[in-house]
Design a protein that fits this description.
The chain is of the alpha/beta class. 37% of the residues lie in helices and 29% in strands.
């Protein structure tokens, strides 16, 4: 179980403190699939990075299975089974796709079959990619899918995906959605997916709308989706209603 308790993150800007995350408290139960959505700049990535240890909160606590991990680094959190796929994945010159998947899996060697299974789940053919370097020669969509495959290879207990749909074509997106659905049905991992896609939002046990560094609204997809979809003109009714209520 993941618990965030009064989590805040502020940066100093022009001599004053700017709140990026403001007093966020939430619990994600084991095996749940939670989707964070909301406007650009709302704080979703910062929240995800705080859970992974890439951003150090200025206040509050993060508990993973009852253990306070607020002060732990990325490696220690990874050892506890937490993984995060970047919104814009880094590239690694000199490292092949096979190396990346092997490193992620924690094994000394990963069979071609196994690599193939992970790559197929993100719609890639192992024959075409296993020996390619994870460098600038890969397209944006390819590098994104390879990173998602590496998270699958890690077989973590908490998987955080930051806009997995970004840059991914429609055919691969359908495959990816299916993969998330299967992972969730298998029940082995807790998943947090940051997404703006209706298809992914509809898979969630709970949808959390993050705006202005706060949890603006939360509920089941069937409750939240109509409100998001109706927000085609002007201000978002969900955000403004909730903002006024706070
Ligand atoms: N170190 C920083 N210094 C100043 N501002 C920052 C810093 N880190 C994040 N921000 C700001 O905090 C806000 C939240 O950023 P974040 O990347 O978490 O948003 P997001 O919800 O993931 O947005 P998107 O949907 O565009 O990915 C943005 O306005 C961003 O510019
Ligand atoms: Mg983001």
């Amino acid at each position: 179980m993941l618990e965030l308790k009064h989590l805040s993150y502020a940066v100093q800007e022009g001599g004053s403190s700017l709140g990026i995350l403001n007093d966020i408290s939430l619990t994600v139960g084991d095996g749940k699939l939670v989707v964070f959505t909301g406007p650009n700049g709302g704080g979703k990535t910062t929240l995800a990075k705080s859970i992974m240890g890439l951003v150090t909160p200025t206040a509050g606590q993060i508990l993973w299975n009852g253990k306070d991990i607020t002060g732990l680094g990325i490696t220690e959190r990874a050892k506890l089974g937490i993984s995060y796929g970047f919104q814009q994945p880094p590239r690694f010159k000199g490292l092949t796709v096979r190396d990346l998947l092997t490193l992620a899996s924690g094994n000394e060697r990963l069979s071609k079959d196994r690599c193939c299974q992970y790559l197929t789940r993100v719609g890639l053919c192992a024959n075409d990619y296993l020996d390619r370097e994870v460098d600038a020669s890969l397209s944006g969509g390819e590098v994104k899918r390879i990173e998602i495959a590496s998270i699958l290879a890690r077989q973590g207990r908490l998987m955080i995906f930051d806009e997995p749909e970004a840059g991914i074509d429609l055919w691969s997106f359908a495959r990816l959605t299916e993969t998330f659905e299967q992972l969730h049905a298998a029940g082995g991992a807790t998943m947090i997916i940051i997404s703006h896609q209706e298809r992914i939002i509809s898979l969630a046990d709970e949808v959390i709308v993050v705006g202005e560094g706060r949890l603006r609204h939360r509920g089941a997809p069937e409750e939240i989706l109509p409100q998001i979809l109706s927000d085609t003109l002007g201000g978002c009714p969900v955000l403004t209603k909730e903002a006024n209520a706070l």
